[in-house]
Amino acid sequence: MSARDLLRANDTRFAEVAATLSEDEWASPSLCAQWTNHEVLAHLVVGYSCGFGAFTAEMLRRRGFDPANTALAQSRAAGRSPDDLLDDFATLTDQPSGLGRYFPRRLLVGDHVTHELDILCALGRDPQIPADVLIAVLNTQVAIPNPFVPAYRNSRGLRLVATDVDWAHGEHGPRVEGRAAELVSVLGNRAKMLPRLRGEGVAQLAARVLSRRTVG
């Protein structure tokens, strides 16, 4: 399956899962610092639709990438209900605009899966993301440096092993074990998921994650 088809299929599946959340669940905190689940959903819509000029202007106004990212997500969430945002997301899945037209599809799959985990894991829901999607995300994370997700840096020198799918990375180094979704989340700098991992390499991975906290 091409990266474009994988992204579209995963977005469609995510939208079906997201449609089951209650009003209280949308208002609950996510794994993203400062963001509710509603704002995470708004961030996904912003990522698919915001133009380069608008985002650059917000960065200049807010004096940084993370503050701009947060402001745009919060502003979009304030003006659109979760149901409205899900409608927007469904449209943008087929016809992305703004930056969403140009961002590499392989990286977008990882971004969207990480944010799905931000929502579901914060709610204590067991994510049902297909194994092939998780493997594709992990393979991309450890192979391609991404300025927005420090997974490439976090994985260096470690032996990573998924316990629920057929995936491993690194032939040498301290071992880190966990479910594939947990590895995706921690490699994406979600410190709250660290206690779910095992192995002598967890302390080294934790030091990297905690040294650079990620917003969104």
UniProtKB/TrEMBL annotation:
Domain Mycothiol-dependent maleylpyruvate isomerase metal-binding: 7-93
Pfam families documented for this protein: MDMPI_N
Annotated InterPro entries: DinB/YfiT-like (IPR034660), Maleyloyr_isom (IPR017517), MDMPI_metal-binding (IPR024344)
Lineage top rank: taxon: Bacteria
Coiled-coil features, chain-numbered ranges: none
Protein name stated in the entry: Mycothiol-dependent maleylpyruvate isomerase metal-binding domain-containing protein
Organism: Mycolicibacterium setense
Lineage of the species this protein comes from: Bacteria, Bacillati, Actinomycetota, Actinomycetes, Mycobacteriales
